[in-house]
C-alpha cells in the first residue's frame, strides 16, 4: 500500500522537512530551561504522528552509547526507528548507525528487514563518530579522523553493494576494513535501488564522502557564508565524480508572536545552559576536530552559546514570527538546500505549531516562485546573519 501524500507536499521540487527524534533524554538543547519534550517511545510516536499530520516527511534518530552533552539516557537508534515506523503510516525515519560499532553486514540486514516491515520508510545516517570516550568505553578502536571517514566510505559502498547485488552472483568486496565474497542478502530492501543514505559533517573528509558515496550531505547549523561555501564546495567535489548530492541543514526553530519574544526564549535557553555539560561536550568535540588535517571539522568555530544546541542549530537563526522563519527557510532553499532538519524546545506542541503556521507559508512562498533566486533572497533576508 503506497503511503498517502500530504496535501502540502504535492510539488516535486518542494523543500523537504525533517525533525530530530528526541530518543535521548534532555531534549535538543544542553540547558536546564524547562522543556516539554520527552524521550520515551510513547511520546515519540505521538511526535511522529504530529509530524506526519503537519507534513514533515522525515524524522532523524541519533545514536549514542554513552551519556554526552547531558543526555544521560539514550535509546538505540535502529530499534527506536523501527518502533516509530510501526506506530506511523507515512513518515520516513532516518536511523543513525556508527561504523566500527556496526558492521555493514548487520546494518544492511537490519535496515533491509525494516524496509520490508515498513513498506519502504527507512533511511540511514552513517555517522563517523566524534566521541572518543564512547568508542573506548565499548571496546572499539578509536581511529583518527581520516581513517574513521575512510571506514565510513567503505561502509557506505558495502551497504549499497549488499542492497543491490544480483541474486546469482551476490556481493564481493575487498577493502581495508571490510571483505565480502558472493554475499546474497535476502530479502532485499523494498526501496529501489536502495534506502536513502545520509552522512555529514563539515571537514574535508566528510565533504569527500558526500561527494563520492552518500546521496545526502548533512550539515550542522551555520550562517549564510558557511552554508554557501560548503554547498558550492561539496557540489564541485561531487562533479568530479560525475555525481550530484542533496543537501540537508540543521536549524533550531523558535516561532513566537514577535521576534523579540523568540529571541527572549533563545536567551533563556542559553542563559540556563548546563555549563558543565556544554564544556564537557566542547572538550570532546575539540578532541575529535583536532585530528582533522586543516581544522575544518564541525564545531571548529562554535562559541559556548552555540554549543548549547549540540548541532549548532542556533547559528541557522530560524527564530522569529512565522513569516520571518518561513522567509529564512526559503532563503536556505535558494542556496541549494533540499531538506531542513528542525528541532524544538517543546516537542509536545511545537511540531504541530510548525505544521500549522510555518510549513503552509513556505509552500505558499514556493508557489509564488520564491526560493529559487539566491541573490533576491539574500537581498531580502541575508542581513539577519550579520547581527
Ligand atoms: C545532522 C547530523 C546528525 C548527526 N548525528 C550523529 C549521531 O547520531 N551520532 C554521532 O555520533 N554523530 C552524529 N553526527 C556527527 C557526524 O557523524 C560526524 O562525526 C561529525 O559531523 C564530525 O564532523 P567533522 O567531520 O566535520 O569533524 C551527526 C552530524 C550531523 C551533521
TrEMBL record:
CDD domains for this protein: Alkanesulfonate_monoxygenase (cd01094)
GO biological process, one term: alkanesulfonate catabolic process
Presence of the UniProt keyword Flavoprotein in the record: yes
Listed SUPFAM superfamilies: Bacterial luciferase-like
Native organism taxonomy: Eukaryota, Fungi, Dikarya, Ascomycota, Pezizomycotina
Full protein name: Related to sulfonate monooxygenase
Ranges for domain Luciferase-like: 39-338
Keyword Oxidoreductase among UniProt keywords: yes
GO terms of molecular function: alkanesulfonate monooxygenase activity
Assigned keywords, A-Z: Flavoprotein, FMN, Monooxygenase, Oxidoreductase
Pfam families per the UniProt record, alphabetical: Bac_luciferase
Amino acid at each position: 500500500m503506497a503511503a498517502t501524500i500530504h496535501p502540502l507536499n504535492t510539488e516535486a521540487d518542494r523543500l523537504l522537512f525533517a525533525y530530530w527524534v528526541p530518543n535521548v533524554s534532555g531534549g535538543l538543547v544542553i540547558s536546564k530551561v524547562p522543556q516539554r519534550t520527552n524521550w520515551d517511545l510513547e511520546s515519540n510516536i505521538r511526535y511522529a504522528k504530529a509530524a506526519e499530520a503537519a507534513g514533515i516527511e522525515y524524522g532523524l534518530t541519533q545514536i549514542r552509547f554513552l551519556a554526552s552533552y547531558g543526555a544521560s539516557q539514550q535509546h538505540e537508534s535502529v530499534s527506536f526507528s523501527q518502533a516509530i515506523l510501526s506506530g506511523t503510516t507515512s513518515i520516513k525515519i532516518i536511523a543513525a548507525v556508527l561504523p566500527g560499532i556496526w558492521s555493514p553486514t548487520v546494518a544492511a540486514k537490519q535496515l533491509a528487514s525494516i524496509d520490508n516491515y515498513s513498506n519502504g520508510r527507512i533511511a540511514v545516517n552513517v555517522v563517523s563518530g566524534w566521541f572518543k570516550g564512547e568508542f573506548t568505553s565499548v571496546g572499539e578502536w578509536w581511529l583518527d579522523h581520516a581513517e574513521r571517514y575512510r571506514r565510513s566510505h567503505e561502509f557506505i559502498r558495502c551497504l549499497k553493494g549488499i542492497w543491490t547485488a544480483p541474486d546469482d552472483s551476490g556481493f564481493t568486496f575487498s577493502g581495508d576494513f571490510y571483505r565480502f565474497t558472493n554475499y546474497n542478502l535476502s530479502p532485499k530492501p523494498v526501496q529501489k535501488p536502495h534506502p536513502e543514505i545520509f552522512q555529514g559533517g563539515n571537514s574535508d573528509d566528510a565533504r569527500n564522502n558526500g561527494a563520492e558515496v552518500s546521496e545526502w550531505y548533512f550539515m550542522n547549523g551555520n550562517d549564510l557564508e558557511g552554508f554557501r561555501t560548503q554547498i558550492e564546495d561539496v557540489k564541485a567535489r561531487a562533479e568530479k565524480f560525475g555525481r550530484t548530492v542533496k543537501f540537508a541543514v540543521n536549524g533550531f526553530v523558535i516561532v513566537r508572536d514577535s521576534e523579540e519574544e523568540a529571541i527572549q526564549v533563545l536567551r533563556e535557553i542559553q542563559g540556563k545552559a548546563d555549563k558543565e555539560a556544554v564544556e564537557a561536550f566542547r572538550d570532546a568535540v575539540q578532541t575529535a576536530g583536532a585530528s582533522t588535517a586543516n581544522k575544518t571539522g564541525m564545531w571548529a568555530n562554535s562559541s559556548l552559546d552555540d554549543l548549547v544546541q549540540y548541532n549548532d542549530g542556533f547559528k541557522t537563526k530560524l527564530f522569529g514570527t512565522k513569516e520571518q522563519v518561513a522567509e529564512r527557510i526559503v532563503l536556505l532553499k535558494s542556496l541549494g538546500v533540499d531538506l531542513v532538519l528542525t528541532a524544538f524546545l517543546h516537542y509536545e506542541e511545537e511540531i504541530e505549531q510548525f505544521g500549522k503556521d510555518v510549513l503552509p507559508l513556505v509552500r505558499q512562498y514556493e508557489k509564488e516562485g520564491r526560493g529559487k533566486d539566491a541573490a533576491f533572497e539574500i537581498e531580502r533576508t541575508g542581513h539577519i546573519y550579520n547581527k
